[in-house]
Amino acid sequence: MRVIHNTPAVETQQVTSYSLRKQLFISTLAALGAGLTASLTSFAFMMILRVAAGVPTPIELFGDHLLKLLPAAKFVDLLVRFSPNSKTAPLGLALLGMIGLGTLLGALYAAIVHVKLPRTGSRPPLRAWLTAGAFALGMTVVGEVLFWAEMGQNFFGLPIEWATLATSLSFLAGFSLYAVSEATIGSSQRRCTWCGRCGRNGGTDKGTAE
Hints:
Layout lengths: L2 E2 L3 H8 L4 H34 L4 H12 L2 H11 L5 H26 L12 H22 L12 H28 L20 E2 L1
Antiparallel strand pairs: 1-2
Helix pairs in contact: 2-5, 2-7, 3-5, 6-7
């Protein structure tokens, strides 16, 4: 009986044996998964702020903003179309749109940061943090520009100035949480050592008996 040990060179070749197509496919799925997770985390945080501080969510602000732009005939048509859930159904669609957009932004983030698999470390590089910061700031600015006229509302009856400030801070906090989640989740994808030849995690046999 003879035991054959894999050398470090063979192990390295197995780890880096991804084809370009397979690497792109896995990286895209990982980026979309990170974006989806970050979106759900951010939405859950904003719902907590809604319950605890009366701050409206971006979905509700989007609904209020859209209603002011719709003609009366179109508004009535939508009420009939979504009846009997004329309020919850549009909000649900807006929620799906928000989560879908956040998921796609995960792929954009990965493309900018150049996230590739397999990874050799778990700490986000400086480029990842800078990109995450730009994402958080950009989304906050976009939200405030779009919903500035609606940001003065609060479910606890705060004055307009304080309500606007609270909504603005909730945007910054929620979108920052999204960006940080995106950076940390994307960088926590550790090196994959799965080898398609042996079909086991680790990708290397300690020994093969002949």
